[in-house]
C-alpha cells in the first residue's frame, strides 16, 4: 500500500497535533541549550499549516508538502523555519505531481529533505542537530528498500533510526545553532530539533503502519 | 547612489537601534532598512521582513546585510533567494559583528565605496580592538 494524498493530509494533521502535545517537552529540551522556543515555534508553524491545508488537500502530494514548507518559512521565526521549511519544500519538489508514494519515493523524499537541511544549515552529522536524526532515518529507509521489506516496515525502521539518532545527540557537543554558544555545557542534553524530526517521522510510521 | 544596508536582528528594537547608530554616521547618504523580530512581532527572524527590507534599499550598487545570531543567516539566505526573483543587483551577507559592522559599513557606503569595499571594511570590524585593557 503506497502513501496516498489522503495519508499525507492525515500525516500533516497528526503532526500538528503531536507537536502541540509535545510543545512543552520540546521547549523544555530547548531551554538548557537553546532559546526555549522550539516547542512554541513548531506548534505555531503547524497551526498555520492547518489553516492552509484544506485549500491543497485535494491536490498532489508535492503541492501539499510545498505548502507546508512555505508556511513554515513564513511563520516560524527561529532556525526551524528555514530548516523545516527547506526540508518540506525539497520533499514537495521531489513528489511534485505524485498522488501515491512507494518505497523508492519515500527514500528519495528523505534524501532530498536531508540534503536540503544540510545545505541550508551548513550542517554535518555529529553536530547535535536534526541532521543527526534524519541521517540514520535515511540509512534505515535505504536498507529496508534494498531488502524489499515493504513500505510500512520501511517507515517504522526510518522512525527507529531517527529515534536512535536523536538519543545519540545527548553526549554530543553542539557546534551549530544557539546551543554552540554553550560549548561543553551543551553535552548531556538531547537536541530539540532531532527530537521534533523523530516525532514527525514517527507520526508518518504510525499513520501508515 | 550608494551601497544599501539591511540590518537583521532577532529583536526589532535591536535592529532599530543599530540602524539609528549607523544612520548617524551615514547622514542620510545611505539607504538603511531594518528587519527585526519574527513576523508576529516576537523575538526571531522573518524571511518576509528581510525580503521586504532588501527591496526597500535595492539599487545597482548592491546591498550589504548585517545580522546578529544563528538563524538570521539562514533566514537571510532564503530572503536573498526570494529577492533574486525580482532583482539581480548584488547582495552580500556580512560576517561582521552587528554593531561595529553596521557603523563601519555606513561610513564606507556614505563615501561612495563599492559593495566589495564596504563588505571588506565591515568584516575587518572583527579585528578592531574594543579596548586596550581587555584583560583586566
Topology, element by element:
The complex is a heterodimer of chains A (about 210) and B (about 140).
Chain A: E1 3-4, H1 5-21, H2 23-33, H3 38-56, H4 61-75, H5 80-94, E2 100-101, H6 103-121, H7 131-146, H8 151-168, H9 192-208
Antiparallel strand pairs in A: 1-2
Helix pairs in contact in A: 1-2, 1-3, 1-4, 1-9, 2-3, 2-9, 3-4, 4-5, 5-6, 6-7, 7-8, 7-9, 8-9
Chain B: E1 4-9, H1 12-26, E2 32-36, H2 47-56, E3 63-67, H3 71-83, E4 91-93, H4 98-110, H5 115-123
Parallel strand pairs in B: 1-2, 1-3, 3-4
Helix pairs in contact in B: 1-4, 2-3, 4-5
Tell me the radius of gyration of chain A: 16 Å
- pLDDT averaged residue by residue of chain A: 96
Q: Distance between termini of chain A?
A: 10 Å
The overall strand count of chain B is 4
Distance between the termini of chain B: 44 Å
The biggest sheet of chain A, with number of strands, parallel, antiparallel or mixed sense and barrel status, is: 2 strands, antiparallel
Number of helices of chain B: 5
Low-pLDDT residue intervals, each spanning 5 or more residues of chain B: none
| Order of strands across the main sheet of chain B | 2-1-3-4
Structural class of chain A: mainly alpha
**Main sheet characteristics of chain B:** 4 strands, parallel
Helix content of chain B: 40-55%
Description:
The complex is a heterodimer of chains A (209) and B (136). Chain A is an all-alpha fold and 209 residues long. Helices cover 70% and strands 2% of the residues of chain A. Chain A is globular. Chain B has 5 helices and 4 strands; from the N terminus they run E-H-E-H-E-H-E-H-H. In chain B, helix 1 runs parallel beside helix 4 and helix 2 packs across helix 3. The termini of chain B are far apart. Chains A and B meet through helix 4 and helix 5 of A and helix 3 of B.
Amino acid at each position: 500500500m503506497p502513501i496516498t494524498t489522503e495519508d499525507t493530509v492525515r500525516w500533516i494533521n497528526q503532526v500538528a497535533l503531536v507537536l502541540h502535545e509535545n510543545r512543552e517537552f520540546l521547549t523544555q529540551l530547548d531551554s538548557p541549550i537553546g532559546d526555549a522556543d522550539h516547542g512554541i515555534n513548531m506548534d505555531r508553524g503547524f497551526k498555520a499549516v492547518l489553516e492552509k491545508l484544506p485549500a491543497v488537500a485535494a491536490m498532489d502530494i508535492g503541492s501539499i508538502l510545498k505548502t507546508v514548507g512555505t508556511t513554515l518559512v513564513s511563520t516560524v521565526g527561529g532556525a526551524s523555519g528555514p530548516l523545516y521549511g527547506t526540508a518540506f519544500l525539497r520533499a514537495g519538489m521531489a513528489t511534485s505531481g505524485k498522488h501515491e508514494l512507494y518505497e523508492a519515493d519515500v527514500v528519495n523524499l528523505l534524501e532530498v529533505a536531508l540534503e536540503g537541511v544540510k545545505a541550508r544549515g551548513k550542517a554535518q552529522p555529529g553536530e547535535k542537530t536534526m541532521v543527526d536524526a534524519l541521517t540514520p532515518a535515511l540509512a534505515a529507509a535505504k536498507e529496508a528498500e534494498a531488502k524489499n521489506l515493504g513500505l510500512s516496515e520501511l517507515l517504522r525502521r526510518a522512525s527507529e533510526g531517527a529515534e536512535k539518532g536523536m538519543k545519540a545527540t545527548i553526549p554530543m557537543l553542539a557546534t551549530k545553532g544557539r546551543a554552540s554558544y554553550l560549548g561543553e555545557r551543551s553535552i548531556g542534553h538531547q537536541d530539540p530539533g532531532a527530537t521534533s524530526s523523530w516525532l514527525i517521522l514517527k507520526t508518518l510510521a504510525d499513520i501508515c503502519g | 547612489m550608494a551601497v544599501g544596508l539591511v540590518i537583521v536582528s532577532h529583536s526589532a528594537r535591536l535592529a532599530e537601534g543599530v540602524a539609528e547608530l549607523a544612520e548617524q554616521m551615514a547622514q542620510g547618504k545611505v539607504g538603511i532598512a531594518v528587519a527585526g523580530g519574527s513576523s508576529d512581532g516576537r523575538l526571531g527572524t522573518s524571511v518576509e521582513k528581510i525580503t521586504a527590507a532588501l527591496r526597500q534599499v535595492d539599487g545597482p550598487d548592491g546591498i550589504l546585510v548585517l545580522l546578529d545570531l544563528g538563524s538570521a543567516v539562514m533566514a537571510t539566505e532564503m530572503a536573498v533567494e526570494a529577492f533574486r526573483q525580482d532583482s539581480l543587483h548584488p547582495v552580500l551577507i556580512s560576517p561582521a559583528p552587528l554593531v561595529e559592522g553596521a557603523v563601519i559599513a555606513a561610513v564606507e557606503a556614505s563615501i561612495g565605496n563599492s559593495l566589495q569595499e564596504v563588505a571588506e571594511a565591515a568584516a575587518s570590524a572583527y579585528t578592531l580592538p574594543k579596548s586596550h585593557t581587555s584583560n583586566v
